[in-house]
Amino acid sequence: MTVMAAAVTAVICAVLTLVIGAGVRGRESEYRREQATTAALQLAYQIKRDRVSAQLAAPDKVDVQVLNDRRMVIAATPGVRGRTPMASFVPEGDSVYAAKVLCPPTGLSGCMSVVAFRVYQPGGDWTVYAAAKSIPWYVNSSLSTFLVSVSLLVILLAALRTWRTVDQTLAPVDAIRAELTEITARRSGHRVPVPENRDEVRLLAEAANATLDRLDAALERQRSFTSDASHDLRSPITAARAQLEEALMYPEEVDWPRTGRSVLQSLDRLQAIVTDLLELARLDAGKWSDTEPVDLAALVTIELARADRSKRIVTHLQEGVTINGDRLRLVRLLTNLLDNAERHAETRVDVSVRREGDTGVLEVLDDGGGVAEADREIVFQRFARLRDGRDRDAGGTGLGLPIAREIAKSHGGDLTIEDSERGARFVMRVALSTPRRHDEPY
Asked: What pTM does this model have?
């Protein structure tokens, strides 16, 4: 803004200089023409009274000639005496006055304003010419020097003010830059200084600090995720290694089929964790397959028909609830919710699909003990497992529900736990691919 102000000041100074110069030039040109006209009128009066001498006097920078009826110069100022007529034009018709700018008049140099007067004489009309120097665009060197000097002075003062303002403005920017260079993944707790004044630099510092806050939160989640993943990956590996080492110490006394099954269980848990980690990595990277319209009711019907469940599944499906998405990932979301509900249900799991306005809703409700309100967000944290979940399934990964929520978010929706009379009620809401018409009932 300060640089723009300096530029505007320079432009204004230039415009004012030109305007003042043009005004002064106009006044000076008008004054010169008036001098020439006055001198010509005085000669016309003298001609009428027969008082014209061969050598005429005129104001400074004005040249005058008197021509008789035969266009011969009979009187003139010293600069044009004894020369041919300085002009050839004469007033037309009954007019007694004419004026032109000649560049130059005959016998003179430079552009001049020439006025011509017709004077009646019995033997024939005489002509009086008066020429005044034209004013150049710069008027005169003194005035031009003065105007340019004033303009340069004003521009210099504006530039100095701009430099000072820019220097004061860039000082906090340099402090912000210096602080940002100190921030690394290991030293991420730094924040840039925020100037006290309310301007764009302050807004920039606040935005930078907000970005650093988000980066710190992301780094903390990454560190926590890495720690939890390392622990969960190490557990099945350690268990399998301990079993094999014990078996090798007493090979004759070991039930090898039983040991093999135990090792396979550890490997199955390890494979499940790695599979879930890969899925989370794909979701975090935003890698998508081509989307397609997915009918939620049809998807639930097909998936329930593919596998038997240990608990009774009761469906409440509304037809025509269609969303745009990745069918395989939506199947993964449904499967994770059903596995979780089956793990905690006593006898029954209810699956519902319905339309709410322009939103499609998929709901999975079990008749188990439910989730305490304080734990409703904890269960969506990666590797988080409540005590009841660990007791019911010690081989779980703690990634099923986080994956389900990430899939819902990747479809522009969300997955939450809502209130219910009994059990845990997981509800996914995603915008429909075809919004409801106004005349269509809910």
From this structure: 0.49
In the three-class reduction of DSSP (H, G, I as helix; E, B as strand; rest coil), residue 76 is classed as strand
Q: Could you count the other beta carbons within 10 Å of the beta carbon of residue 344?
A: 21
Among residues 65, 39, 43, 63, which one has the least CA distance to residue 52?
43
Which of 17-21, 318-322, 354-358, 421-425 shows the lowest mean pLDDT across its residues?
17-21
Q: From CA 29, how far away is CA 35, in angstroms rounded?
A: 10
**Rg of the chain taking only CA atoms, in angstroms:** 50
CA distance linking residue 369 with residue 422, whole number of Å: 7
DSSP assignment string, 375-389: GTTGGGSTT---HHH
Are 414 and 428 within 8 A, CB to CB? yes
Six token digits for residue 270 = 């390890």
CA–CA separation, 112 and 80 (whole Å): 14
* Number of neighbouring beta carbons within 10 Å of residue 104: 14
Question: What pLDDT sits at residue 81?
Answer: 76
Q: What angle do CA 69, 73, 74 make, to 5 degrees?
A: 85
Helix, strand, coil content of the chain in percent (nearest 5)? 50, 15, 30
pLDDT at position 442 is 46
What amino acid is encoded at 4 in this protein? M
The Cα 118–Cα 46 span in angstroms is 13
Give the number of other Cβ atoms within 10 Å of residue 183's Cβ.
17
Q: What is the pLDDT of residue 1?
A: 47
More confident residue, 8 or 357: 357
